[in-house]
Write a structure and sequence with these properties.
The protein is of the alpha/beta class and 229 residues long. It has a single domain, classed as TIM Barrel (Alpha-Beta Barrel). It contains eight helices and eight strands. It has an eight-stranded parallel β-sheet. The longest helix is centred in the last third of the chain and has 15 residues.
Length: 229
């Protein structure tokens, strides 16, 4: 059985009670808190910064926090997120003038580092930095907004990235973000992903607003992943 991890994207959570939302979604059996940072510059939206990450840690969240930087420039904000409690910090190669330097900076701050690939960004950016990477994140939507539909060509890209990781022999997680739901998570896993970001696919589900509202959808995702093995 593969080490599948589900990463709820808090972009789709209820921000009026974010701590409670994160507590409940982790209690439902998810693994990683996915943190979408948008700057209204690299992407056409503005979301959250290090203070929210720090607030979740102070609230008592101990699960890994996966900070996806959709910002440009990248380097200035890395130290702030590391100090705020980030576990992973991933960024887009287009947003950094010096990809190798930014990866080194993230590692020097004590965090795990990763690169994020938009649907049309080639994987060739990995060629000379694979040894500095802990996470490869493939976008299966164009970044900027939640609730978009999965782009099917991401499956072929997943297969390519999985081969790169397997051939390298390195311990690198392969994450997918965008349009991931219970009805397509098995197909995505079969293409090579082991870490699944889901925002509206988890938080957008109707149900009673209580501590158990996410149990059913997360259990359904786990059942679909179990079919893949």
């Amino acid at each position: 059985m593969a080490d599948y991890q589900i990463a709820p994207s808090i972009l789709s959570a209820n921000f009026a009670k974010l701590g409670e939302e994160v507590d409940n979604v982790l209690a439902s059996g998810t693994d990683i808190v996915h943190f979408d940072v948008m700057d209204n510059h690299y992407v056409p939206n503005l979301t959250i910064g290090p203070l929210v990450c720090e607030a979740l840690r102070k609230h008592g969240v101990t699960a890994p926090i996966d900070v996806h930087l959709m910002v440009s420039p990248v380097d200035r904000i890395v130290g702030d997120f590391a100090a705020a409690g980030a576990t992973y910090i991933t960024f887009h190669p287009e947003a950094s003038s010096h990809i190798d330097r930014t990866l080194q900076l993230i590692k020097a701050e004590g965090c795990k580092a990763g690169l994020v690939f938009n649907p049309a960004t080639p994987l060739s950016h990995l060629d000379y930095v694979l040894d500095k990477i802990d996470m490869i994140l493939l976008m299966s939507v164009n970044p900027g907004f939640g609730g978009q539909s999965f782009i099917p060509s991401a499956l072929d890209k997943l297969r390519q990235a999985r081969k790169i990781i397997d051939d390298s022999g390195l311990d690198i997680r392969l994450e997918i973000d965008g349009g991931v739901k219970a009805d397509n998570i098995a197909e995505i896993a079969a293409a090579g992903a082991d870490t699944f970001v889901s925002g509206s696919g988890i938080f957008g589900k109707p149900g009673a607003n209580d501590a158990h509202r996410y149990d059913t959808i997360v259990a359904e995702m786990r059942a679909q992943l179990a079919k893949v093995g």
